[in-house]
Design goal:
By secondary structure, the chain is mainly β. The chain contains one helix and twelve strands. The strands form two sheets. It has an eight-stranded antiparallel barrel with strand order 1-3-4-7-8-10-11-12. Strands 5-6 form a two-stranded antiparallel sheet. The radius of gyration is 19 Å and the shape is elongated.
Length: about 220
């Protein structure tokens, strides 16, 4: 199973690399397509009755329009994209996501529990091409809440049956969040880090989730 997953992931990465380069070539380098795979580490204060898993994988994709900086190969980019964050809880689940104040229920019978938060992003970044195939980028983005949901799998009802429960909305989330990020890239592959400045939840209405993201990205060079 693990071997098949690695082969599938490698095939997807190769396909994304080819498509990103082809897209940029067809737009004469003015438009860039990018894809990111990352994990979120929560830097917010520990919540009273749950903790996040160490690895919280997420995904984002984006398009940017590139403005040259004079006669140099450096660019300023403005774009749009979407980001999907997944936060996995340990021995707890969101049993009442529609409440005014969000709390998580402790339960040792939880097998899998997560919340999913999705944003529409407007990123802006400055790209410095050090040599032909090596690039360093710094940027920021404002993200608008699109959707959210929660899911739990486990023996959480106390009736001896294994349940899978999904909710299609989580209350008390901030509608706008702000982040900064940096990238170091060679050819189509780049490593990046990002940090969200404000809490994913409204003040005093949920846990403090301030994700620090680390991941790998694919985009044309």
């Amino acid at each position: 199973m693990r071997r098949n997953f690695l082969i599938l992931a490698a095939m997807m990465m190769l396909s994304l690399m080819a498509n990103a380069q082809l897209f940029k070539d067809r737009t004469n380098g003015q438009v860039t397509m990018g894809f990111d795979l990352f994990t979120d580490i929560n830097t917010g204060s520990k919540y009273e009755n749950f903790d996040l898993r160490t690895i919280n994988q997420g995904f984002s994709t984006y398009l940017t329009y590139n403005f040259p900086m004079g006669e140099s190969k450096h660019t300023v980019s403005l774009g749009a994209g979407i980001t999907f964050h997944n936060y996995y809880m340990k021995n707890a689940w969101l049993s009442e996501p529609y409440n005014h104040v969000i709390t998580f229920k402790e339960d040792a019978n939880v097998k899998k529990s997560k919340i999913n938060i999705n944003y529409f992003d407007i990123p802006m970044e400055v790209n410095f091409r050090i040599v032909d195939k090596f690039k360093i980028s710094f940027g920021a983005k404002v993200s608008f809440l699109m959707s959210s949901k929660s899911k739990v799998i486990g023996y959480v009802m106390g009736d001896g049956h294994k349940w899978e429960i999904k909710y299609n909305e989580i209350n008390a989330l901030e509608s706008i969040v702000y982040s900064a990020f940096a990238r170091v890239g060679y050819r189509c592959v780049n490593l990046f880090v990002g940090y969200q400045f404000n809490n994913s939840f409204k003040q005093d209405r949920g846990p403090e989730i301030l994700p620090f993201s680390i991941g790998i990205g694919i985009r044309a060079y």
